[in-house]
Amino acid sequence: MSKMIQYFRGKLGYTILNASYEGYDEPEAHGRHEPDIVARDSDEILHLAEAKLGEDLSSSTTEEQFLDFSNRVMPETDIPIPFHIIVYAGDKQNLIDKLRQLGLEQKIDDRIKILTL
């Protein structure tokens, strides 16, 4: 989680609003679940992030999270909220296959950003 926070803050320049990590308030639910990180960019757009490791990619909870988090919009402006998914490099194809299975393939590189460790 700390690498995700460092990436968002250092590389992307985002402000971390909430995180499932020591020193931060826990994120609130966006849909049925809480993301690992909620951040804001310099344009005031929210970003959600979720880390998934190995077997976790095939759980029903993960499917719900992907569907919920990839369809969020900012209530005041209807601007789509980008959703970042972090996986090990070896799991990237499994993630793409899962997103395809859920009908989310067209959102990859648009609303869904895939990051690898």
Mean pLDDT: 96
Q: Strand count, sense and closure of the main sheet?
A: 5 strands, mixed
Query: SSE order in H/E notation?
Result: HEEEHEHE
Query: Helicity, in percent?
Result: 25-40%
- Count of DSSP E strands? 5
Helical region count?
Answer: 3
Strand content: 15-25%
Structural class: alpha/beta
- Radius of gyration of CA atoms, rounded to a whole number: 13 Å
**What shape does the CA trace take?**
globular
Please provide a brief summary of the model:
This protein has 117 residues and is α/β, with parallel strands linked by helices. It has helices at 2-11, 60-69, 92-101, and strands at 15-19, 37-40, 46-51, 83-87, 112-116. The N and C termini lie close together (11 Å).
Task: Walk me through this protein's architecture.
The protein has 3 helices and 5 strands, in the order αβββαβαβ. It is α/β, with parallel strands linked by helices and 117 residues long. The protein has one domain. It is globular, with a radius of gyration of 13 Å. 25% of the residues are buried.
